[in-house]
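Ticket 4471: requesting a sanity check on a complex prediction with manganese (II) ion. Repro inputs:
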Amino acid sequence: MIDFHCHLDLYPNPHEVAARCAAQRAYVLSVTTTPKAWHGTVALAEGRERIKTALGLHPQIAHERHQELALFEGLLPEAKYVGEIGLDGSLEFRQHAAVQRKCFNQILKASAQAGGRILTIHSRGAADEVMDALADQPDAGIAVLHWFSGTKTQLRRAIDMGCWFSVGPAMTRGRKGTELLSAMPLERVLTETDGPFVQRSGTPIQPGDVADAILACSNTWKMEPADAAFCIRENFRRLVS
Ligand code: MN
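Returned structure tokens:
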């Protein structure tokens, strides 16, 4: 299974959770929300080749952590993946739009200067702004829009820009999410959990628990779940190779 966006370091027992991922042979992109979390989160992946770590600065805490941008740039040469980054335009966070934009733009620019990265991007309530920023830095790398919740028009734009999408269980529960999924190009879809922020049966979803997302893909693509899982795995291979 492919879990292309999971916060391993934010589970209460991250070492146990990481060990379980490895035992289940799950491919996990372990994202961070601050540059300061990088070393501790990398340690969770040590000796576990299927767990990759992404260097991030989450838009919801950009106003508290923007001083860590220099640290981010210092660590970037070590990081093949970048995230969680992006913009959050929801009511609670739009007051910090300026500092979010500053962080996001600077990270995209640094990624471009470093030769490009695979980016896992948050775009809640800010899909157009995220795409504007990506358009300004076309060499930043490959953008994977995680938990995309924009409009169909915004989705169309993202597809035209070459974005990828990681689809989680929360996205597959409602009608809007499934409509978006059906409009995404099959060959650019990955699965994710966004654990531990997503609950499943009353407890935080576990890394690699992408069964619901695979089921939604299999329904949308009119194929068996095993075949949908195979497509996602092939997409993953193509992306990271
Ligand atoms: Mn996340």
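Notes from triage: The pocket of manganese (II) ion is lined by residues 5, 7, 84, 194 (CB under 6 Å). Leaving this open until the requester confirms.
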